[in-house]
Specification:
single chain; globular; binds pyridoxal-5'-phosphate
Length: 409
Amino acid sequence: MTYGGREASLSRLDFPALQPRGHGPAPAYLDGPGGSQVPASVIEAMRDVYATCNVNTHGNFPPSREIDRRMTQAREVVAAFLGAADGSCISFGQNMTTLNFSLSSAIARSLAPGDEILITQLDHEANRGPWLRLREQGAVIKEVRLLPGGVLDPDDMAEKITPRTKLLALGASSNALGTVNDLAFARRLTRAVGALLVVDAVHYAPHFPVDVQALDVDFLLCSAYKFYGPHVGVLYSAPGALDRLATDRLSTQDSHAPYRIETGTLNHAAIAGVRAAIEYLAHWGRGLNLRERILDAMAGISAYEHSLAAYFYGAAAALPGVHIWGPDFSTRSRAPTVSITLDSRTPAEAASALGERGICVWDGNFYAARAVEILGLAERGGLLRTGVSLYSTQEELDRLLEGLAAMAL
Ligand SMILES: Cc1ncc(COP(=O)(O)O)c(C=O)c1O
């Protein structure tokens, strides 16, 4: 199987953590929805900051000018990754959760008691908790219903968006079930009532090309450690959107986007790593500029991951005592993340038995706690989740299937 015209398994050579250790193979990292491994170029970009320009920004001396330059470049590269107009739309933070709390605090200052916010039963807590706490100041929080098949109920969403709705917080893709949500539909509904659309693309961005301008979102968040970078959160704000918000910030801080929501000194080395991660993805694509290469690469990676995950989905479904949760792979609108339960073991028991075989998969609710509760799985230890990344191979999935078959007996 290939992407970018090259054999996909070649990508493994780029990741130090994937190299064989001793006599055995490297662990099979099928835990991508929890966090991905990083290529050597990302490690090198971070090392180089510490080695050459580990100083603060905005100084009138060469290393400081250099770190300013790298920060500006990083914003431009992330803008290309997300299809944003330019780097002024890209803010950085500690992680997605922290940025979303900052965003919700700022938006809260424009709300009146009785204003409505719509969240979903499918979303990760990071796109629920920051909005749920606004109940304390009189906001009315409603939830879009999750259907048993693992998709959100579109009629329920349409019904719950009213003229009082000020914001819809919606995941682009579920980190628990791999569902891809209909963002265009959500945008039409929110536009009709003048509500903001805040999209959590943490699970989506590693697997699909993103185009914030085509989606016409107000805010979109993602997290670089899910797309082969270090632990840095990213916030996209539509032009002008951040400047309208009363963010928490020091009087000494630059009050314009993208700085307006960035508190304190950022992790410059890690942000250089974010840029390197996106450039790494882009090198798997072809095109005349960075955006074209990113789009081409993400289309190829997406198709590769989809075919591997569909293979795993079909083979796992055929195992006795294995139940699969979430939508099937009949459409391309499906993230390569497959969650199951087993009759013979709890998810934690199964993950730990697979761990003994060198297979890394997650168990539990993965902070998509409400979805797991709605599906009736909370008391049963949640789900066992397999994620396919660009470096995953069919051989690794076969090892996992062998392990599952041994437990299913
Ligand atoms: C879908 C989704 N949203 C949000 C988050 C939170 O991201 P962060 O760890 O950057 O706060 C995660 C993390 O697993 C996630 O999977």
